[in-house]
Amino acid sequence: MPHINAAAALQICMLLSALPAQYFISQWYGTDSAQRIVITERLIIASWSSFTKSYLNLDAWADCLKLWLSKTRTCLNVGLLIFHFRNWYYGEKKTKIGDNEAETHSYFAESTHVRSPKPEYIQFSVGQVIVHKRFGYSGVIVGWDVNANAPEEWLQHKYPPAKQDLKDTPHYRILINKANGFGKSMAYIPEEEITIIMGLEVVHHPDMKAYFSGYDGSKYIMQPWLKKIYPHD
What residue stretches are annotated with the Hemimethylated DNA-binding domain (predicted)? Predict the structure, then answer.
């Protein structure tokens, strides 16, 4: 099979394009052969000139390369910006979540360390229904600390100098009964502010099933995971 170089391939392409070119020329410019020859020559010369300027010109290739590089650079820059933004956003979000988790398990009777043995001065137990002495709302105990375990800023706001001694008393985490219309869903309050209600089963709160599995007539029954934290309640 004969070898076809680039020049021969180009000539073949031009010859193959001549027939359809002549057909369209005859359709648009009449049947006069002399006129068709002139138009064909002009068309070939114009096509060749355009071809050499576009594909055989180093400057044209350099311009195309620069344009492609600029677009690629723009895409890369945008991609890097998106990448860094996503890393920053999700990394920041992850850090915040991690901080919240640390606070949740360290403060406001949400620590998962086992409360054993239970000190005798802790009067109330997880699962008991309470009423706030001053505000009158009811709720259920879901956790306790032997003393106030909260951020310092919260303690300073909660307890002015005249009530500083309350920080060293037992504190209870309460799911507030939604039926009271109190507005808040949870509270962290000292022992002296609550009293126990016996026989009141219904406490409406969306998290009740997460903490308790039922009611035994005197208090709510803790879920197994919660019972492990408060084995003596």
Answer: 121-223
